[in-house]
Design a protein that fits this description.
Layout (H helix, E strand, L loop, with lengths): L1 E5 L6 H17 L4 E6 L4 E4 L16 E3 L6 E4 L3 E7 L9 H17 L6 E3 L2 E7 L13 E12 L2 E9 L19 E2 L11 H15 L5
Parallel strand pairs: 1-2, 3-4, 9-11
Antiparallel strand pairs: 2-6, 3-5, 6-10, 7-8, 8-9, 9-10
Helix pairs in contact: 2-3
């Protein structure tokens, strides 16, 4: 049984990391249940294990936190749903790559609830949507914007950190970084795409699609 918690208000990043680490240890020890924790953070940037200093273009804009999750720089803030996944990857096949693909498919399935076609792209972490109304890229391909980021860490085969999906954040807040090190594409949100989606709507979609996307395989 996976527990679900929706945090009220804005959760401080350091508090979130401490909570996740403690819960992951409890899951690994067999004394805690798996958990999906849905939060919003105050505006901040996090630097994953592959972050490049030059991708932090405005270091004074918001607090910057060094994170042990995979990935590069990302933004968190109000209007963005962060889903922290404290799950036993061991009973899901001991396959980290497959687990990340499951997280991607979970996001894609949740977006499909709003008739949004999300996609993954080789060499670009996260979930993307095509923007045919925008000018084409120099190589003639359709412009694409990122709508969700993924970055996890494993300890004793238990995951923590997770995914973030843009519902209605201030997209200008992404300007202080090169999101995930990708300069040729933009960032979007459900509201930016013209959908009057509230956070509760996305939360319900995540719950409806979770069991199909992420299931034990042992």
């Amino acid at each position: 049984m996976v527990e679900w918690i929706i945090a009220e208000g804005l959760t401080a990043y350091d508090d979130a990391v401490a909570f996740m680490e403690a819960r992951a240890e409890a899951i690994a020890a067999g004394t805690g249940d798996e958990l999906i924790w849905l939060v919003e953070h105050p505006p901040l940037y996090t630097a994953g294990t592959s972050a490049k200093r030059e991708d932090l273009t405005d270091p004074e804009r918001f607090p910057v936190f060094t994170s042990k999750r995979g990935g590069q720089y990302t933004y968190h803030g109000p209007g963005q749903r962060v889903a922290y996944v404290m799950l036993d990857v061991g009973k899901r096949g001991h396959d980290v790559r497959r687990f990340v693909q499951d997280l991607e498919n979970w996001v894609i399935a949740a977006l499909a609830e709003f008739n949004i076609h999300g996609a993954i792209r080789d060499g670009r972490v996260g979930v993307w949507v095509e923007r045919p109304e925008k000018p084409r890229l120099p190589d003639g391909s359709v412009a694409e914007d990122k709508i969700a980021a993924i970055g996890i860490r494993l300890r004793r085969w238990v995951s923590f950190h997770g995914i973030s999906i843009n519902v209605d954040p201030d997209l200008s807040h992404f300007d202080g970084i090169v999101p995930c090190g990708i300069r040729d594409h933009g960032v979007t949100s459900l509201v930016d795409l013209g959908l009057p989606v509230a956070m509760d709507d996305l939360d319900n979609a995540l719950r409806r699609t979770f069991d199909t996307a992420i299931t034990p395989r042992s």
